[in-house]
Design goal:
There is one protein chain. 72% of the residues lie in helices and 5% in strands. By secondary structure, it is mainly alpha-helical. It folds into two domains: 63 residues, Winged helix-like DNA-binding domain superfamily/Winged helix DNA-binding domain (Arc Repressor Mutant, subunit A, Orthogonal Bundle), CATH 1.10.10; 145 residues, Four Helix Bundle (Hemerythrin (Met), subunit A) (Up-down Bundle). Strands 1-3-2 form a three-stranded antiparallel beta sheet. Helix 4 packs antiparallel against helix 9, helix 5 runs antiparallel to helix 6 and helix 6 runs antiparallel to helix 7. It is globular and about 55 Å long.
């Protein structure tokens, strides 16, 4: 008989935090929106304690500004902070990609190809949520062979902040073809072992997203009188 299989179990606070995290990343809970413990407790049909613990976790991740025993608000970044998020992505991701390309194996290319196909399918289905998740997983797969644990941990945290803006960008972006082509080309350059070409394209790819996103959010905030 096979041995027992370990199954990861989530605690109640973890499950609530996970759901709230996705609601923030999807935009269902907007920037600056108030989050009240008592309302969330009713919504999830739990006591306030697991909600409080969930909010503390999201506060530690920088997604929620938590106020003791009250609740909090969804973090709203300034335009300068949003720009900084993407600048940090460039610094870390370009370095990881440079280190990964010489070490990538066929297994790495196959994993990237699978995720790329899923992402392209989500383009066609106009599934922003799935695209956002696949986009993150694809970028992380491109860098996996760098074998830089601490860099990837930092990137995971930064990606939590950038992901909701990337999804906002995608949801209103009329022309998605350049991003789609960039993702395909990044894998092609990696397969050729073109470190410099891959690094240059990746930087341009993130910078274009940053520029378009900042222009869009600045316009939205002006129209809202913010």
């Amino acid at each position: 008989m096979a041995g027992r299989r370990a199954v990861k179990k989530q605690s109640l606070p973890e499950m609530i935090a996970s759901d709230l995290r996705q609601r923030i990343l999807s935009g269902e809970l907007a920037e600056g929106e108030a989050i009240r413990q008592e309302l969330l407790a009713k919504e999830y049909d739990v006591s306030r304690m697991p909600v409080r613990e969930a909010l503390k976790r999201l506060s530690a991740e920088g997604l929620v500004q938590w106020e003791n025993n009250r609740g909090g608000t969804v973090i709203k970044h300034s335009l300068r902070e949003i720009g900084e998020i993407f600048d940090l992505r460039i610094l870390i991701e370009v370095d990881l990609f440079r280190r990964a390309i010489p070490n990538m194996t066929q297994a790495d290319f196959d994993a990237c190809e699978k995720l790329l196909s899923e992402m392209e399918g989500s383009y066609e289905a106009d599934d922003v949520s799935q695209w956002g998740q696949s986009n993150h997983e694809y970028h992380m797969a491109l860098y996996a062979a760098a074998d830089r644990r601490m860099s990837k941990e930092f990137l995971e945290r930064i990606s939590l902040h950038s992901d909701r803006y990337v999804r906002i960008h995608l949801s209103v972006m009329k022309q998605r073809q350049p991003a789609k082509e960039d993702h395909r080309k990044l894998l092609e350059l990696a397969a050729k072992g073109d470190v410099e070409g891959g690094a240059v394209l990746l930087q341009k790819h993130i910078e274009r997203t940053k520029t378009e996103l900042l222009e869009m959010i600045a316009k939205q905030r002006r129209l809202a009188g913010e």
